[in-house]
Every structure is written in structure tokens, then in C-alpha cells.
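New to this. Explain the following:
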Amino acid sequence: MPHYILLMKYTDQGIKDIKNTAQRTQANIKALEAMGGKVNAIFACMGEYDLIGFGEAPNDEVATAMSLMITSQGTVRTTTVKAFPMDQFAGVVKKLP
């Protein structure tokens, strides 16, 4: 399955409701699993991003739907990055002329 990194920053609403972050996260994990995806790890962070999630989805459409669902809750803004494992990337590089 394709890999994705979800970079998240709290909104004002997210900071006001910070105590419910864990519950929202668990609900979002279940939603992704219901769409055929998998969460590999989620970290709370110091620095530019407040939360970073690493996961897999069957395709870009599911990853986009998940990102939109999370953002529509109003507690975080997201940036989604498609990631390639190094063995897959090596295969891409071999195709270069």
C-alpha cells in the first residue's frame, strides 16, 4: 500500500479542546481502517508541527478523503505527503534514462 505522512498543526479550536486529542485520534484511526488504511505511528511533536502521523492507504483518493475528514473537524490543519520506501524509490531511479 502507498505510504503517507500527515503533518498537523492545531487550530485555535484544537488548542481549546486539547484534552480530547487522544479520543479524536482513536476515532480517526478507526475511520482510516474502515476505508482500508492503516496507521503505523502518530507522534505529538515540539516544533513546527504539533502532530505527525505515518500511515498507509489503498490509494491517493482514500488518503485525500482521510485528510479532508480530519481537517473538516476544525481542530487541525493538515499537509499530506506521499512517501516512497527506499526500495521502491530505488526502482523509480532505475527507470531514469
